[in-house]
Write a sequence for this structure.
């Protein structure tokens, strides 16, 4: 399925009339062992990664607990049919028994207020340290891995950057949560030796998803919420935000940023 379409529009001012590339947005049902768990509006790309990443970051199943993923096109959208091993299926069944209401973007499958604000387990111990120039390089490198954004200027991106290999993976989606889930699914395993880089603001649920990946550093181009900062502190994640080519701000665990020539306000 295509990820963008050229549509006609009227233009005023300096823009020339003609076609504008716009990202596709389709309903994606996430189903486990034949039963739908959540429905997300998403970009129809990297959906296998989305299935694995959503399962991991929502605490439903790790990649090794998934037997298979099938992407099925339907008249109403796309159905991701995910088949779980028995222990993961039993956990999901118990979770469903206690669900109290509908779910929404970023909190799909959450069954209580306490679960929505749950503190994740601290990320694994990591020796990762970044210089200020490396932080700014990571933010800059993500720009080079956003082909759908370049075409449409209407999607988010999430990437994983390491000092040795640079940007080792990046995924895009109309939803910032979806982009991060796709990244986690692409990596398929915990990664304590690099940084997650986001094009979006940082909310509490994005910190939870980064913690599920085991990433010790989170870099974002926009600001975090206060709750996200508190959760990053508890999770042991170095939260860096407002990252620009020449500056950034560190909100938690600054010990991972080595003294290069950083200006501290």
């Amino acid at each position: 399925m295509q990820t963008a379409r050229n549509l006609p529009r009227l233009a005023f001012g300096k823009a020339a009339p003609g076609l504008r590339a716009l990202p596709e947005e389709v309903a994606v049902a996430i189903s486990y062992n034949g039963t739908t768990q959540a429905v997300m509006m998403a970009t129809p790309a990297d959906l296998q990664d989305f299935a694995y990443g959503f399962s991991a970051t929502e605490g439903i199943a790790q990649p090794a607990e998934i037997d298979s993923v099938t992407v099925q096109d339907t008249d109403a959208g796309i159905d991701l049919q995910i088949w779980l091993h028995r222990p993961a299926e039993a956990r999901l069944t118990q979770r469903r028994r206690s669900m109290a209401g509908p779910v929404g973007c970023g909190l799909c499958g959450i069954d209580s207020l306490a679960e929505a604000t749950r503190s994740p387990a601290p990320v694994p111990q990591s020796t990762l340290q970044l210089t200020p120039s490396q932080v700014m390089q990571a933010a800059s490198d993500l720009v080079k891995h956003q082909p759908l954004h370049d075409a449409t200027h209407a999607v988010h991106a999430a990437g994983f950057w390491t000092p040795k290999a640079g940007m080792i993976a990046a995924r895009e989606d109309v939803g910032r949560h979806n982009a991060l889930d796709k990244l986690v699914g692409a990596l398929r395993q915990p990664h304590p030796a690099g940084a997650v880089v986001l094009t979006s603001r940082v909310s509490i649920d994005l910190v939870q998803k980064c913690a599920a990946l085991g990433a010790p550093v989170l870099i974002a181009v926009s600001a975090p919420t206060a709750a996200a900062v508190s959760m990053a502190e508890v999770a042991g994640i170095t939260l860096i935000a407002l990252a620009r080519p020449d500056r950034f701000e560190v909100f938690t665990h600054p010990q991972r940023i080595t003294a290069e020539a950083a200006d501290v306000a």
Summary: The CA atoms of residues 50 and 127 lie 29 Å apart. The radius of gyration is 19 Å. The first strand starts at residue 4 and ends at 9.
